[in-house]
Amino acid sequence: MKITNWRKIIKDNGLTHASSRKLPLITNSCIFFGYTDILKKKLGYSYEVIGNIGKKDQSYFLINEDKVGKSFYKVAKNKNLNLLINDLQGFLNENKQKITKVKKEKDYFKVLKIILDVYPELLFHIGFYNSIMRYVKDNQDRAKKLGKSVFLAAKDKDILANLIYTEIEPLLKNCVIKIGKNKGFEGDLLRYTTLKELKRYIKEKKISKNEIVELSKRRKNYLYLVCNNREYITSDKEIIDSVYKEFIDIKRDTNILKGTIAYPGKVIGKVYKAFHGVKISKPGYVLVTNATKPEDTPLLRKFAAIITNEGGILSHIAIVAREFKIPSIMSTKIATKVLKDGDLVEVDAEKGIVKVLKKAK
Question: Residue 139 sits in which domain range?
Answer without folding.
Answer: 3-247
